[in-house]
Design goal:
The chain is of the alpha+beta class and 269 residues long. The chain has eleven helices and eight strands. A hairpin with a 2-residue loop joins strand 6 and strand 7. Helix 2 crosses helix 3 and helix 2 packs antiparallel against helix 4.
Length: 269
């Protein structure tokens, strides 16, 4: 019994001494943190999404104070967080809302399947092994890798085999764009108006495009010819629009035989 009591007392004494030493070492080797860093970290989204280009919110907050990152760099937080960071820094800061758009309309009804795929059910695996699940090698694979990486719950797979974006939740962090093996997501200004082409097929073989996907861009050039503002051109086979010139007239939307174009404001809302 005495041995047990003695052991307990010795253990408590050792623990007390170690506690004192740890507290002492903490004070001696403590690294002072700029209070602005913690203040900025507290107003960030906390998602650690990486949209700012840093490993996490804490790293971004430190970079902002160090002057190596812009005060409006928190993509997930948007304009409201940028304004709060500006208040902490004592400067005026503005930011634009960002959103993701899927540049593919080739759902299960429009795009012909490549065949039966029995491999790992991920977009990355299917793309690497058989170049995708559809005959259009540029189209959405449909296994939802983008959904899996979205930290904001802004993506889900639709019944037609294409991912659907919830624009009330999307912050334009860009993770879906980085994850998609076909590079089908584009990040744009959420307040942008005007037309946008929703096809990423770079092939110039009209016959094959039409056979593989009924909504694929045929490279016919009607959109370019009929655009009154001359703000549209085909770049590597993909329709590109200068949003600064587009007036949302909708002529390209109506004239495209494959219905490739839509107005951004109709998509994002």
């Amino acid at each position: 019994m005495k041995i047990i009591l003695f052991t307990i007392i010795v253990s408590l004494c050792v623990a007390f001494v170690l506690g004192l030493l740890l507290g002492l070492f903490k004070k001696i080797f403590a690294v002072e943190v700029d209070p602005k860093v913690q203040a900025i970290a507290d107003v960030l989204s906390g998602g650690n999404c990486g949209g700012c280009g840093f490993a996490g919110c804490a790293a971004f907050a430190q970079a902002v104070v160090d002057g190596t990152a812009p005060a409006n760099g928190c993509i997930a937080g948007g304009p409201s967080v940028a304004a709060k960071v500006g208040e902490i820094l004592g400067v005026s800061v503005s930011a634009q809302r960002k959103v993701a758009i899927l540049a593919c309309k080739g759902n299960n009804e429009c795009a012909a399947p490549r065949g039966v795929y029995n491999g790992i059910k991920t977009c990355a695996a299917a793309s690497q092994s058989i170049n995708g699940t559809k005959l259009c090698s540029f189209g959405c694979v449909g296994y939802g890798d983008c959904v899996d990486v979205c930290q904001f719950g802004a993506l889900f797979m639709g019944s037609d085999g294409l991912p659907v974006i919830d624009y009330e939740k999307c912050v334009g962090c860009g993770k879906c764009a980085k994850t998609c093996p076909k590079k089908l997501f584009v990040i744009i200004d959420g307040n942008r108006k005007g037309s946008i082409g929703l096809c990423s097929n770079k092939s110039d073989n009209k016959t094959v495009i039409k056979k593989n996907c009924s909504v694929g861009c045929l490279k016919c050039g009607l959109c370019v010819k009929k655009c009154p503002e001359k703000c549209l051109e085909l770049v590597n086979g993909v329709p590109q629009i200068d949003p600064s010139k587009c007036t949302s007239c909708g002529i390209c939307v109506k004239s495209c035989p494959s219905k490739v174009f839509e107005l951004v404001q109709d998509i994002v809302g």
